[in-house]
Amino acid sequence: MSTPRVRRVRPQRAAGRVAAALLLALIVLAAAAPAIAPYAPEALDLAHRRAAPSPGHWFGTDELGRDLLTRVLFGARVTLAVGLLSALVAAGVGVTVGAVSGYAGGFLDSALMRFTDAMLAIPRLPLLMIASAVVDPSVPLLILIVGLAGWMESARLVRAEYLTLKEREFVAAAHAAGARSARIIVRHLLPGAVPSIVVSMTLAVGRGMLLESALSFFGVGVQPPTPSWGNMLYQAQTTMTSEPWLALFPGLFIFLTALAVNLIGDGLTAGDE
Amino acid sequence: MPRLLVQRLLQAIPLLLIVSLLVFALIHAAPGGPLTLYLSNPNVRPADIERLRRALGLDQPLWQQYLAWLCAFVRGDWGYSYADGRPVLDRLLERLPATLELIATSMALGALVALPLGIVGAVRRHGWFDRLTTVLSFAGISLPVFWFGLLLQLVFAVTLGWLPSSGRSGMGGGGFVDRVEHLVLPAGVLALVHAAAWSRYLRASMSQVLRQPFMIAARARGVPDRTLWLRHALRNALIPVLTVVLLDAAIMVSGAVVTESVFAWPGVGSLFTESLARRDYTVLMAFLMLSSCAVVALGLVADLLYGRLDPRVGGDPS
């Protein structure tokens, strides 16, 4: 083999760092939206309705003359919040289910895993579309629903980690020292599972964001006038031909954020290859 | 083999029972239950609603309703659509061919793209082609399908006028060319998403096979590169890829729902979004049950196929 032994910096790692910087910048911009947005999110400018992108309105304006850049920034708050917080919910449930399942074994394990398999068998987007239609959720409720539909992957990962970790000597030592199961699960085993939890959470952020966008795109997610990238697309759908920028920018942001999250996930796992 | 099949089938039953419980609970969590649609309609009198409740058995305890629904579902009696009063089974069946046509076409196209990308990516790892396709596949995986579909409509249907923006031909005559023209955009979008994911799977799987000792042995025997890659490596690499593809069936269902809605493709997926807008719960419930059954069935096929194709796996999977 003629591969040189000295390797450059792994390209995945580098791409992951750039992506992380981008995502961080976006989070900061979203958090600072009220301070930096050029207009108020609901400010109407009836003289400049449906205006194409220009120096005054970088991303153009919508049918009510609202500035699209402002709405994209405020939409970022909602979409990113759903992505990040639903990933937290998913991780919370997934880690609990996976840890208990892997540590306890036996009947509890198989019962929990059958439930996990069942949840994985139901197509996620249609399931969430029905759930949203049924409960007509506010943003916090939407976060909860999306999170509750996304814990299965991390549950499986954490279970696998616990299955191998619990056979190690330090667990037997902790037992011998009189530690109770709950303490072993949380204090002794959880730190070992952290790397895989982080990776699965990263992927859950991207998935949660895309799910929010898809739900709002179908009119069952975040309801106007609260802007989210998904419901901005939903509203732009009908005027695609005359005002394409209304659909272009929100979608572009969904795409770039999802791309950033996926690259971060890939960068985190690059060492395993 | 038959023992494994029976064992797997028995494992699928509790799985589907849990799925059915979840789906049933979800629909009945709606305020007003499956009759929400009528409650908000001022033309329906309370007495009529009461009559409907009794006719549909909604006045009975929940567990009895569940059992009745489950028994009926197993018998193929999936109730009537609230929207037009026709049997749900008929409505689903008449939409199924369009969906199967779309999925089959997109899978074939996706495989056609993913195969060369995956092979070249693994053989010429870290080369310029591999880097380019890695970037493209990440873009493909991250692409929001509904947005990309809208963009393609705008470019190819509205601006260039090359292709129809939505619908499916074949209903009002229309020849083969017309049929293909309608299929290009929706199938293309889905194929792109498939190709992005599958080429990654294949690249990873093939890279692993290429590192096996038997590959070095084959090379030492003087097997030419082409044969080495296509006969020795690819055949082994495809086995795990095939099962991963089958296990991705749930994602495919979600993809079909989105794509069919954006392109007004008259399949099961757009029937789902139409029914969602009308809160037509019998159709929604049947769709979710049917697609979950399909996912479980394909998972079963993946399991059995893996054992068949890879003799090392056979034995007794736990």
Explain what you see.
The complex is a heterodimer of chains A (273) and B (318). With 273 residues, chain A is an all-alpha fold. Chain A has one domain: MetI-like fold (Orthogonal Bundle). Chain A is built from eleven helices and no strands. The radius of gyration of chain A is 22 Å and the shape is elongated. The mean pLDDT of chain A is 85. With 318 residues, chain B is an all-alpha fold. Chain B has a single domain, classed as Orthogonal Bundle (MetI-like fold), CATH 1.10.3720. Helices cover 75% and strands 0% of the residues of chain B. Chain B contains 13 helices and no strands. The longest helix of chain B is centred in the N-terminal third of the chain and has 36 residues. The radius of gyration of chain B is 24 Å and the shape is globular. The model of chain B has no long low-confidence stretch (mean pLDDT 83). At the A-B interface, α4, α5, α9 and α11 of A face α1, α6, α7, α11 and α12 of B.
